[in-house]
């Protein structure tokens, strides 16, 4: 303590010494920051990125050189793993759900919480839609190999019948992880990187999703692509403690997609958008008349419509189609809530009993194609390049294009030249979806679809 007082006294009474020391401390601090933010010449040549600093981002990563789409940036395992704050109780070893209530049924041998036999019997009597799932050969084979065989083989649970495993299914939970380098990527609502997570080791693999210019910031998105600006910014402020001001968030038209625009309730022809999207509580106004809405009113309306969407069963095709009809005069065609319904329809048309591809009418098949194309047009703007969402929708699009092309050619509606042109499109859709989805972790549904795309190309001789 005496030493501290002496130094304090000197700082108060020797301006020259104080300025010299202050200058040296500032210089030392700057040199230390530069040391932290830089790498050795050898490392700089090896790494595709380097760390820089700004008052807005803090530390962030920029490209060391021009990077092509698909280049690996970071591959690393987490420093720490743990359950989400808002999540249910989970096992801290495998992160599967557990209940720690006093009246929870426990194993007679070790007292670990497990399902009560009576409760399990109730679950077993529930409808599992096994026969409907069996119709999807790709997913059925995927679960057979990655779940059934693992439980009955690797885990030596031979007493379980294969049908039982298919009916019980898998239970997924969310966990949070901390990574030593990946945390340095800045956020952007139209990012230039994509990532995959290994479900076993939790290793993260970050790669470029499109071409990145030298010195361009490397970015990922903390928010869900299929949400409007009002919801995305609120989500990031609540969870990440900042208000996003990226190009997409700053643009009332969201880069021309109009993902948040409403139909004007007054003139019925105009579009209602946020006057200044960066003002979270600011007014929304029609571009054709004087009609205005407050942000709170807009949010209430969106919450009500979202609740209607959430109430529809995920496999209910008529329900989703009715949702689109009900709100087509309320929301603009590219509104994110309509896009969410269309995305679901893109996936379940051709995969749901009564709407399997051989059962679908030409009108239903054309509708699936239309939804896929509409969705892909938006994804090409908001989530372009080698991204999971784009790979999935391109895979879904290839089937209706192929079926309708074959039907049109066989009935003489198109020429051989047009037939060949459309086949080239099918091949391109399969090739791109294969290249994207095979980058997903082995054992994932996306990877299985990538393999299915590769198999289809092989059968076509490509």
From TrEMBL:
<feature type="region of interest" description="Disordered">
    <location>
        <begin position="1"/>
        <end position="50"/>
    </location>
</feature>
<dbReference type="InterPro" id="IPR053010">
    <property type="entry name" value="SET_SmydA-8"/>
</dbReference>
<dbReference type="GO" id="GO:0005634">
    <property type="term" value="C:nucleus"/>
</dbReference>
<dbReference type="InterPro" id="IPR001214">
    <property type="entry name" value="SET_dom"/>
</dbReference>
<feature type="domain" description="SET">
    <location>
        <begin position="40"/>
        <end position="223"/>
    </location>
</feature>
<dbReference type="GO" id="GO:0008757">
    <property type="term" value="F:S-adenosylmethionine-dependent methyltransferase activity"/>
</dbReference>
<dbReference type="GO" id="GO:0008276">
    <property type="term" value="F:protein methyltransferase activity"/>
</dbReference>
<feature type="compositionally biased region" description="Basic residues">
    <location>
        <begin position="1"/>
        <end position="21"/>
    </location>
</feature>
<feature type="compositionally biased region" description="Basic and acidic residues">
    <location>
        <begin position="26"/>
        <end position="50"/>
    </location>
</feature>
<protein>
    <submittedName>
        <fullName>GM11450</fullName>
    </submittedName>
</protein>
<dbReference type="InterPro" id="IPR046341">
    <property type="entry name" value="SET_dom_sf"/>
</dbReference>
<dbReference type="GO" id="GO:0008170">
    <property type="term" value="F:N-methyltransferase activity"/>
</dbReference>
<dbReference type="GO" id="GO:0005737">
    <property type="term" value="C:cytoplasm"/>
</dbReference>
<dbReference type="InterPro" id="IPR011990">
    <property type="entry name" value="TPR-like_helical_dom_sf"/>
</dbReference>
């Amino acid at each position: 303590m005496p030493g501290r007082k002496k130094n304090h006294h000197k700082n108060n009474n020797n301006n020259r010494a104080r300025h010299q020391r202050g200058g040296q401390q500032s210089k030392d601090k700057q040199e230390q920051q530069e040391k932290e933010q830089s790498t050795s010449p050898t490392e700089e040549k090896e790494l595709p990125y380097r760390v820089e600093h700004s008052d807005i981002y803090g530390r962030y990563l920029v490209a060391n050189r021009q990077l092509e789409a698909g280049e690996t940036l970071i591959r690393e395992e987490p420093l720490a793993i743990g359950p989400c704050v808002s999540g249910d109780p989970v096992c801290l070893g495998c992160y599967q759900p557990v209940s720690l209530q006093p009246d929870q049924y426990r194993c007679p041998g070790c007292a670990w919480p497990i399902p009560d036999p009576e409760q399990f019997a109730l679950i077993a009597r529930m409808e599992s839609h096994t026969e409907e799932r069996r119709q999807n050969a790709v997913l059925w084979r995927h679960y057979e190999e990655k779940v059934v065989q693992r439980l009955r083989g690797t885990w030596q649970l031979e007493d379980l019948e294969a049908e039982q495993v298919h009916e019980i299914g898998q239970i997924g939970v969310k966990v949070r992880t901390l990574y030593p380098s990946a945390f340095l990527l800045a956020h952007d609502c139209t990012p230039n990187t994509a990532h995959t997570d290994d479900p076993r080791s939790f290793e993260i693999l970050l790669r470029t999703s499109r071409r990145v210019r030298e010195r361009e910031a490397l970015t990922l998105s903390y928010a869900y692509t299929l949400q409007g600006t009002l919801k995305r910014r609120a989500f990031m402020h609540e969870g990440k403690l900042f208000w996003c001001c990226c190009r997409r968030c700053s643009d009332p038209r969201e880069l021309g997609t109009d993902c948040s625009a409403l139909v004007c309730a007054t003139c019925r022809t105009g579009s209602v958008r946020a006057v200044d999207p960066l003002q979270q509580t600011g007014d929304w106004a029609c571009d054709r008349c004087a009609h205005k809405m407050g942000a709170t009113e807009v949010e209430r309306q969106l919450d009500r419509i979202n609740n209607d969407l959430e109430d529809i069963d995920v496999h209910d095709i008529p329900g989703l189609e009715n949702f689109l009809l009900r709100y087509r005069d309320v929301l603009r065609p590219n509104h994110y809530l309509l896009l969410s319904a269309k995305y679901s329809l893109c996936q379940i048309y051709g995969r749901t009993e009564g709407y399997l591809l051989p059962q679908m009418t030409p009108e239903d098949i054309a509708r699936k194609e239309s939804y896929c194309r509409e969705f892909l047009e938006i994804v090409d703007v908001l989530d372009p390049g080698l991204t999971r969402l784009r790979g999935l929708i391109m895979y879904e699009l290839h089937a209706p294009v192929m079926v309708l092309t074959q039907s049109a050619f066989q009935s003489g509606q198109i020429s051989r030249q047009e037939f060949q042109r459309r086949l080239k499109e099918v091949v391109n859709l399969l090739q791109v979806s294969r290249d994207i989805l095979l980058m997903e972790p082995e054992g994932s549904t996306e990877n299985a679809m990538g393999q299915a795309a590769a198999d289809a190309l092989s059968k076509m001789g490509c």
